[in-house]
Each structure stands twice: as C-alpha cells, then as structure tokens.
Amino acid sequence: MSRIGKQPVKVPSGVQVAVEGQQVSIQGPKGSLERTFRPEVTVTYDAPTAELRVRRQAEDRVSRALHGLARALLQNMVRGVTDGFEVRLEIVGVGYLAAVQGDKLQLRVGFAHEVHMPIPPALKVTCPDQTHVVVQGCDRQLVGQFAAEVRAVRKPEPYKGKGIRYQGEHVKIKPGKAAT
After folding, report:
1. For residue 1, pLDDT beyond 70
2. pLDDT band at residue 2 under the 50/70/90 scheme
3. For the chain, what is the domain count?
4. Which of 46, 48, 93, 123 minimizes the number of CB atoms within 10 Å of its CB?
C-alpha cells in the first residue's frame, strides 16, 4: 500500500470540491483548479469529514505509482487554492535588472537585447525591486515552470556567480586560472 496514497487529503473550510468521474474541480479563495486523473485511480470526496481519498483499481506497477502521485497532486491543488505558491528569484550582476511591463516580464541580463517573457494569465509576477522577481499562483506546476524558464534565460555562471538564481540558491564559485 502506498504510504502517501492511503492518507486522506483534508479540505479546509471555504474550499469547494466537485468530483465527476475522473475530473476533479477545486475552488478556493486564491483561485480554482481542475485536473483529470488517470483511470487507474479513483478519487472520492467525503463531504461530512471534508476529506478527499484516492483508491487504486489494481495492484500492477502503474497503478501503484499513480496512487501516490494522484494524492500528492490533490494535496497541491488544495494547498494552492488556499495558500498559493510562491517562488522568489534574484538577479546578480552589474547592470542586470528586471521589470514588469503590462503582461510581460522584461529582463536585462547582459545580452545585446532585452528579453521579454509573456506572463501566463494564471500567474502574478511582481518585481519588488530591480534585482528580485516574485512568481505567485495557485498552480504549483505552472509557478515552478515559469520560474525555471526565467532562470534559464541566464543561469548563474560558475566563475563570478552572475545570472538569475532562486533566492537562497548556493552557487559554487570556481577559482579560475589564477588558482593554478
């Protein structure tokens, strides 16, 4: 039995859950999310106890793998519509900066041109100052994917540490030619 999959997902008050076959819709104060689950697992909602449960159909390898995955996805959906997710990025480098203009994130990170990235409508991207970017949203996958795409524009390089990194990320600095 999956240790994660057998645990119920507690649904806090103020969150509405609708389960129709394999389609699960969750609405909360931060937004609404929908997901269609694979037929190997069944999702049920118990309204009196306010719990979501995941049950697998068979004992084969794929069903066992999807059991814990489906429960983790449901937990992330519930957490996303109640609290939301946030990823903070910091920009390190002389002259490197970021700004939000309308529905685009403008990055100036050492290229001959500025990089303009369209912001997905489900996300809220802010720049508290020119060297920090905050990505917020209720969909954990979308928040992480957009933050990874922003970081990929200019990854931190290993000699001076310049580039875009996650806040708190440690970049190992190489000594360079002078160390020999």
Report:
1. no
2. low
3. 2
4. 48
